[in-house]
Amino acid sequence: TKKRTRSMVWTHFTPCKDIIDKSQCNYCKKLHACNSTKDGINGMRKHLWVCKKVPRSVLDDRQTIFSREPT
Fold first, then answer.
1. What are residue 68's phi and psi, to 5 degrees?
2. Other C-beta atoms within 10 Å of 56: how many?
3. For residue 59, what pLDDT is reported?
4. How would residue 71 be classed by pLDDT, with cut points 50, 70 and 90?
5. Closest CA to 22 of 6, 35, 11
6. Which of 50, 52, 32 is nearest to 7 (CA)?
7. Is 31 within 8 Å of 24 (Cβ atoms)?
8. What's the chain look like in SS3?
9. Separation between Cα atoms, residue 70 and residue 55, nearest integer Å
10. Dmax over Cα atoms in the chain, in whole Å?
11. 7/66 Cα distance (integer angstroms)
12. Which of 69, 38, 40, 19 is nearest to 30 (CA)?
């Protein structure tokens, strides 16, 4: 079964097939932990604030990504 991803953060990251519980930034290719029970997605959210390769259009939409998302 495929795990459902609800967060908009996942539009900026790709799950790694070779490494379990890791995801890769679509812009700088850096790996981040993404285990839902241990790490969550906060590290990925924070990375979008500091990644220098994130396009300006994403930076303008950051508030949507970081605001409380519907469950």
1. -65, 125
2. 7
3. 66
4. very low
5. 35
6. 32
7. yes
8. CCCCCCCHHHHHEEECCCCCCEEEECCCCCEEECCCCCCCCHHHHHHHHHCCCCCHHHHHCHHHHHCCCCC
9. 25
10. 35
11. 10
12. 19
Q: Identify residue 27 by its one-letter amino acid code.
A: Y
Distance CA(71)–CA(61), nearest Å, equals 19
Span 5-50, pLDDT tens digits: 678 888 899 998 888 889 999 999 999 988 777 777 888 888 888 8
Structure tokens at 56: 């300006």
Note the pTM of the prediction, 2 decimals: 0.71
Residues 6+ apart with CB under 8 A from 54: 12, 27, 48
CA-wise closest residue to 11 among 31, 26, 28, 22 = 26
